[in-house]
Amino acid sequence: MARGDLREHLVRTRIAGDVATSRENNLDHYRSLADRDPYLMFGLTLEGRWAYRDVLELMAKSAGVVADPGHRQGQDTIDPDRTIDAIEAMGDTVAGVLRAGAPRILVATGHPTGLLTIHLALVRLLRECGATLMSPAEGWAYWIEGFGRKRKIRYLDDVAMLDDRGAFVHTHDPDPMRAMLAELGDDRPDLVIADHGWAGAAGEAGILTVGFADSNDPALFVGEAEGKIAVTVPLDDNVLPRYYAPLTDHLVERVVRAL
Q1: Would you report the helix, strand and coil content of the chain in percent, each value rounded to 5?
Q2: Are 135 and 160 in contact (CB under 8 A)?
Q3: What is the pTM of this model?
């Protein structure tokens, strides 16, 4: 799909452009990150000061949200050109790892209702290109405070997710990735492709990491600005899975062309 057609698709499906995430929600999360709320830190520790205005300025630059701090409610945006630029940078990074020969790659998602479809396509490509897909700590479980039950790591076609009583669930939690890396020890992956706390914990551990993030999840963008995340793709992370197909195709084609 040509860039212009992809851009039109992103806007039409609200993966980018006028997204569903409200301005109020975005700003609330930027303030919470500035206050170092663990739920929004995704396992990253930040070296910079990153006050509220700093986070807003970065998100305007990296994701294309409205830069005006006086815009406090209503519609917010993701710049579709930034989405496309970042997906191409992600493709180049993945291709660079594949060119090195037989890499070990770990793939995970904290948003199975949306982003899983992208990760599954990437896993198929990586396998065809000779990568080893890692699956550490399968079955590792921990108690969720306030829920009174356990969640555990489960893999679907080599994509790690959290399982809660047989259902894959949304999570920001970095602890599952920390458990996976602890089990691997020195046998670390060459690349992590992930989102949410899965990506943040990997980047914090110094592993080459690329990821996806919504406009109300600023942590990975801040992590990228500090050099802990290689690429963060801005997009609405919970539209209908089939809407991601053209973006996924563009990513896969970029990887293949760059090999």
Answers
A1: 45, 20, 40
A2: yes
A3: 0.96
Take residue 198 and report the two structure tokens written for it.
């899965």
Q: Which of 188, 208, 237, 212 is nearest to 94 (CA)?
A: 208
For the chain, 259 residues long, give each residue's pLDDT as a single digit of tens: 899 999 999 999 999 999 999 999 999 999 999 999 999 999 999 999 999 999 999 999 999 999 999 999 999 999 999 999 999 999 999 999 999 988 999 999 999 999 999 999 999 999 999 999 999 999 999 987 766 778 999 999 999 999 998 999 999 999 999 999 999 999 999 999 999 999 999 999 999 999 999 999 999 999 999 999 999 999 999 999 999 999 999 999 999 999 9
SS in 3 state form for 110-157? CCCCCCHHHHHHHHHHHHHCCCEECCCCCCCEEEECCCCEEEEEEEEC
| Interior/surface letters 80-104, b for 16+ CB within 10 angstroms, e for the rest | bebbbebbbbbbbbbbbbbeeeebe
Instruction: Please provide residue 103's backbone torsions phi and psi, each rounded to the nearest 5 degrees.
Output: -75, 160
Task: Characterize the bridge pairing of strands 191-195 and 104-108.
Answer: parallel
Task: Compute how many other C-beta atoms are within 10 angstroms of the C-beta atom of residue 128.
Answer: 9
Nearest to 122 by CA among 93, 159, 92, 86: 159
